[in-house]
From TrEMBL, chain B:
Record carries keyword Cell membrane: no
Name used for this protein in its record: Spore maturation protein B
Domain Nucleoside transporter/FeoB GTPase Gate: 47-147
Keyword Nucleotide-binding: no
Transmembrane segments: 7-26, 46-72, 156-176
Organism: Paenibacillus pasadenensis
Amino acid sequence: MVNWIWLGFIVVSVVVAAATGRMDAVTQAAFDGAKNGVTICFGLVSILVFWMGLMRIAEDAGLLARLARLLSPFVRLLFPDVPKGHPALGYIMSNMSANILGLGNAATPMGIKAMQELQKLNPDPATATPAMCTLLALNTSSITLVPTTLIAIRMNYGSANPAEIVGTTLAATAVATAAAILLDRWYRSRSKQPPMAPPAGGAASRPRRAARSPGRLGGRRELPPEA
Amino acid sequence: MHSFINLLSAWMIPAIIAFIPLYGAFRKVPVYETFTEGAKEGFGTAIGIIPHLVGMMVAISMFRASGALDYVTGAMEPMLRQLGVPGEVLPLSLLRPLTGAGSLAYTSDLIATYGPDSMIGRIASTIQGSTDTTLYVLTVYFGAIGIRRTRYALKVGLFSDLVGFLAAVFICLYVFG
């Protein structure tokens, strides 16, 4: 689907530009877009480097496992195919907490870490697993308690009550998230994928409980191959 | 309540930044070394996202500049107007899932034009705050781990954007109307 959307955007743009005589603007936009993409990624470098460093401490200290256990009934309901105590659950929890608290720049690194952990459970690294789709659904509909950016903008333009949209935003985001979860459930039940087999060297061989013992676990970190 | 939440968000990040290493030290984790070791991954991850994000941003940026986006919203307008959706916020329904910066700019513009306390200003604020940029989230998250077949993830994201958009409009009409 992404292939078609991408192709569609580009082809339709050029056709429309040809019809409206905006060819120059479209050419400019293509290169501006490319520049923007790189700029955003470079903006992500500092955030990812920082939070991934911090989260490694949390993981090695057993904090993530603790967090995963704390809310595990709820998370396990959403992610039934992730083995109990797997670090992915801890990252998923951190990602969701960061989203809810509106800590946008912490949410992305934790979500990416969660995806990387889920990738270790993935028998086919080029294809998304149901768990990845669920995590993505939770992030695209992002439950946020306080939309800080918008409150700031409303304040700037002299709103009498800048925060009056907090309630409506929360209600709308709850509806959107519920819709995402329901549709995700439906696709999951329809796809009837065989249960995930933990790949060799994956979750099964990683002694999570050992994180409680002092010190790091050497040599257990391998990134999934970039496809 | 609001000031409490504000206070909470101001304290949250520094509290987390201090708490995690402290907890790690308590667990006898060599905190600084562990930090640098984990941080190494961040650079590669960010760089790995570049091709995906550049591809997406080029397509979206062309789509907007060509005027195609305006045609699509124009075509949708009569349908949604019948449902009682103010026409001014319509472009947001398409902008929001595609571009975070673009929809934020459009929302700011609506707030500046109609005032933050107008119905349009309130609806636009609610739409902007209630969902995330689906295409960006998909590109970054799946790009970071090299997923090519995204299965039904995009459909779920776009569907929840639509539901969120309609919910934002009708909740605002109900609450502020």
